[in-house]
Structure formats: structure tokens, C-alpha cells
């Protein structure tokens, strides 16, 4: 099994990747190291990308039998995982959908059949951009038990940066304008968070209080329209607001 990379190592390793095929293979290996060896990456809508760079299942390492069955039955129109991925902004665990939503029996059956096909421990990661981009990554495991649970925030950061690199390879980043502007101090705070510094360490280095650090992050979240630090780092890297 590949070694588990930190987010910083993942970002550094992707800097030299130049093709979609290499990026896809690398990303699949990275998430597999955390137990998620089933990956589906889809782009439903993205006006900044060429038509051939969008679509359902751009990466799809789900069992082939399930892929064929899913397509033939037209499950995409009722699949609660797919619907939630394109309809929400926050990452989620598949197991929570049934408890949090009023599903039809057909939708429940889709989830049961997916598990029977070998899709366990599922996670949905919505991916969003400034020009109504709509994409997502669905991760699952081929085994029921994968060890310690990996945080949704970390998985979201990996997927968001993967999407960033996909943009770069497709040649669209330079054509994408992101309206948010971060102050110099906000950039400093965010860069230190990206390289693993704690708030207290950052406060000492910058000569400001711990509460001021928290205030900076609240403003960053509002400006970038993101829910947490991992998403803020990934978005800032994606649109060139910071550089590691």
C-alpha cells in the first residue's frame, strides 16, 4: 500500500504532474493509502473547462459490474449520493444520508445495492468554483474496515487541490478570475495554516494575539465562501491567492 502523504506532501508532489492520466493515477494512489480504493470524479457543469474535460466518471474505479448496472438502471437520477454531492457544499459520509434525509425506498435500495457491490465507508466531496462550477468526488472502500477514520476536512482538502491541478493541466486557471482579495496578513495566516502551523505558533511569529488569528480566519471564510480552513487553503491555492 502506498505511504500516506500529508496535505503539504500532496501539494508538493502535484507540482510536477503535467498530464490528466498521471494526475488521475497519482490521486487514486494517494486516497487508496487512506483506505479509499474506489474513486469517482465527475464534473456536471464548469464553463471554464472545455466540453471534453467535463463529464460523469472522469475517474471511475468502482467495480465494472456496478458501473454497468448503475448506468443501465439510470440510477444517477435518483442516487442520493450523487444528488447530495451536486446539491450541497459540504463534504458528507454516505451513512449519514439515510438519517438526515427523507429517502424513498428506491433511493435506499440504490445505497444498499452499492454496498452489496463492494462500496463501503462512502464519502462525498462536493467541489465548487466562482463561476457556478459543479463537480464532485465520491470515495469508497472495497472492505468494510479501513482503520482510523480520516477527517472529512482532510479528504476535502485533498480533493479540492486535485481539482485545482486538474484545472492547471486543462489550461483553465489562467482564464479563471476569482473576485475575492485577501489582505497581506490574511495570506500570511493562511500560508502558515497550510504548512501545518497552529494558531498559537502563528500568533507568536506574527506578533499578534490568538483571538486576532481567529478573527482573520472568520474573514477569510466569508471572503472565500468556504466552511473551514482546509477548504480555504485549497481555494486560495487554486486561484493563486497564496503560494507555498
TrEMBL record:
<keyword id="KW-0805">Transcription regulation</keyword>
<dbReference type="Pfam" id="PF00196">
    <property type="entry name" value="GerE"/>
</dbReference>
<dbReference type="InterPro" id="IPR036388">
    <property type="entry name" value="WH-like_DNA-bd_sf"/>
</dbReference>
<dbReference type="InterPro" id="IPR000792">
    <property type="entry name" value="Tscrpt_reg_LuxR_C"/>
</dbReference>
<dbReference type="InterPro" id="IPR036693">
    <property type="entry name" value="TF_LuxR_autoind-bd_dom_sf"/>
</dbReference>
<keyword id="KW-0804">Transcription</keyword>
<protein>
    <recommendedName>
        <fullName>HTH luxR-type domain-containing protein</fullName>
    </recommendedName>
</protein>
<keyword id="KW-0238">DNA-binding</keyword>
<dbReference type="GO" id="GO:0006355">
    <property type="term" value="P:regulation of DNA-templated transcription"/>
</dbReference>
<dbReference type="Pfam" id="PF03472">
    <property type="entry name" value="Autoind_bind"/>
</dbReference>
<feature type="domain" description="HTH luxR-type">
    <location>
        <begin position="175"/>
        <end position="240"/>
    </location>
</feature>
<dbReference type="InterPro" id="IPR005143">
    <property type="entry name" value="TF_LuxR_autoind-bd_dom"/>
</dbReference>
<dbReference type="GO" id="GO:0003677">
    <property type="term" value="F:DNA binding"/>
</dbReference>
<dbReference type="InterPro" id="IPR016032">
    <property type="entry name" value="Sig_transdc_resp-reg_C-effctor"/>
</dbReference>
Amino acid at each position: 500500500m502506498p505511504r500516506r502523504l500529508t496535505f503539504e506532501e500532496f501539494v508538493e508532489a502535484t507540482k510536477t504532474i503535467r498530464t490528466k492520466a498521471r494526475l488521475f493515477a497519482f490521486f487514486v494512489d494517494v486516497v487508496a493509502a487512506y483506505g479509499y480504493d474506489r474513486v469517482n470524479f465527475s464534473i456536471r457543469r464548469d464553463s471554464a473547462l472545455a466540453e471534453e474535460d467535463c463529464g460523469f466518471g472522469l475517474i471511475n474505479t468502482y467495480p465494472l459490474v456496478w458501473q454497468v448496472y448503475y448506468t443501465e438502471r439510470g440510477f444517477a437520477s435518483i442516487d442520493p449520493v450523487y444528488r447530495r454531492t451536486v446539491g450541497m457544499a459540504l463534504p458528507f459520509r454516505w451513512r449519514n444520508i439515510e438519517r438526515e434525509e427523507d429517502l424513498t425506498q428506491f433511493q435506499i435500495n440504490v445505497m444498499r445495492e452499492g454496498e452489496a457491490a463492494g462500496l463501503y465507508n462512502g464519502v462525498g466531496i462536493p467541489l465548487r468554483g466562482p463561476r457556478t462550477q459543479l463537480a464532485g468526488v465520491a470515495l469508497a472502500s472495497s472492505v468494510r474496515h479501513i482503520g482510523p477514520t480520516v477527517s472529512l476536512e482532510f479528504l476535502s482538502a485533498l480533493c479540492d487541490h486535485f481539482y485545482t491541478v486538474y484545472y492547471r493541466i486543462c489550461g483553465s486557471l489562467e482564464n479563471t478570475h476569482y473576485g475575492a482579495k485577501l489582505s497581506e496578513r490574511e495570506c500570511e495566516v493562511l500560508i502558515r495554516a497550510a504548512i501545518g502551523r497552529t494558531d498559537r505558533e502563528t500568533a507568536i511569529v506574527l506578533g499578534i494575539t490568538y483571538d486576532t488569528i481567529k478573527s482573520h480566519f472568520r474573514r477569510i471564510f466569508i471572503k472565500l465562501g468556504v466552511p473551514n480552513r482546509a477548504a480555504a487553503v485549497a481555494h486560495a491555492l487554486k486561484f493563486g491567492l497564496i503560494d507555498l
